[in-house]
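**User:** Once you have settled down, spend some time on the protein underneath, comparing sequence with structure tokens, and judge whether sequence predicts the tokens.
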Amino acid sequence: MNLNELTIKQISEGYRKQEFLPSDVVSACLEAIRKKDGEIHAFLEVSESAWEEAKQADTQVKNGNALPQLFGVPMALKDNIFAEGTKTTAGSRMLKDYRAPYSATVVQKLKNHGAIIIGKTNMDEFAMGSSTENSAFGPAKNPHDTSRVPGGSSGGSAAAVAAHFVPAALGSDTGGSIRQPASFCGIAGFKPSYGAVSRHGLIAMASSLDQIGPMAKTVKDTEILFRAIAGKDVFDATTAPVDSEVHEKALKDTVFGIPREYMGEGLDPEVEAVIRNAIKKLEQAGAAIKEISLPNSSSALPAYYIIVPSEVSTNLARFESIRYGHRNHEAKTLFETYTKSRSEGFGAEVKRRVMLGTYALSAGYYEAYYVKAQKVRSLIREDFSRAFVAVDYIIGPTTPTPAFHFGAHKDNPLAMYLADVYTVAVNLAGNPSLSLNAGFAEEEGKKLPIGLQVIAPFMKDLALLNTAVKIEDLLKSAI
């Protein structure tokens, strides 16, 4: 039995039956990281205390104590989530030596449930990117084909789960940064409703869209994790309780909407074939399939890339090298200290978004760009509200293509942005959304995972997870 390949559910059951101990599982995960992560580069830091924590947890398992489901489960954190005392870089040279002074609310909740934090994962700098190529410390690689990207910006978390380094990890999703890498790496990735999970202790990129969420080998595991980290938090005024009333509904009693805008031009034929096959399986299971329209979805990406850079330019203003962050010690004036330190500390994509955002918020362009983008955001939210009057869930592709090769979009940022074309609208609206593996496309002799995205009404997170478990079980039998 390869203990590092087990799911959260299997690990929890193994402890209950005393088939193995937390130190056995953590040792297996650390050994897998030691052997393979030199190639995958999923981790930026591995915990030196994880095994000692596991040894201490062994006693409770041996004593047969009733334990939470996450007790003794090794977990990884995206490197923009604070865990007290750990290096927390957000994938940037700006914070290369920064250590978190406290733990994020989600981390504290995981520890309260007995989870063991095994390390911090690689990511696009300050969560800006769709491939992890923007990491200042080198990219993570896709375990299914190391010549391809794992997605981003939570690419390190997705790769760590897919490579069986850990059973699950936390990521953050601003425009698809959990779901897109989950799709590319063939795992489950869940972006909760905005406000369902506290952002306290998350290094902010775009505060009105950022959301922490779970990534795991199965949808059931993402549900276990979500239940542990969700809920209102006094440190985050945007949090609210999720709808806990989940009425069990069979697939045959469920109506799924397929947006015609998601299945047209720009969708890779192999991705379309896998998604249409998944839809066919749902129909065969008795589910009702209805074509719908999200008429403003074509405006989602342009609106997103006005709103996000605007919030980026504001949030990243704090990295001025005086209080914290990289500092150029040769500068002779305060202005020179700011300019040289930020120029050296930030990478190309961060600089691009800061400049775009500053421009969009400037006096002469604020109304023309930022205000207009926020109006489009309202229209997108209304599109989803109207759609959910007629259907229970919306389904479609998570990404327009399978994982692409490194460097494929190096000279074309717009092509890179299109990797999130099916995911950004969900963040603009604040709805919950999940990507699960729907099958594989074969390219160059490699089987590349394809993700199916499932979207639910606002704060119907647990209902979505309940339904997604059924969809995953249905599709697994067909893959």
Observations:
- The chain has a mean pLDDT of 96.
- The first helix runs from residue 8 to 16.
- The chain is about 40% helix and 15% strand.
- The radius of gyration is 21 Å.
